[in-house]
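On to my pick:
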Amino acid sequence: MSLTLTAPTAEAATTTLAPREQEALRHIASGCTYLQTARNMGLSKHTVDAYLRRIRAKLGINTTAEMTRLAVSMGL
């Protein structure tokens, strides 16, 4: 048995992520901190953290760099 790791595609991410998750991802990928993202979205930083944890879990992503790469490929 062999294990193959595959990166999530932009199409899969678009259909998997909720609109607010996509918005949080866009802010983080543009270089905003959790607090700046929260202020821009009118949320608490804990809610932003929850969105980003869900994104990581749904897409099997571990780092902010991977999230940024995905956001760029999605056109966010």
About this structure: DSSP finds five helices and no strands in the chain. The first helix runs from residue 10 to 16. The helical segments are 10-16, 19-29, 34-41, 45-59, 64-74.
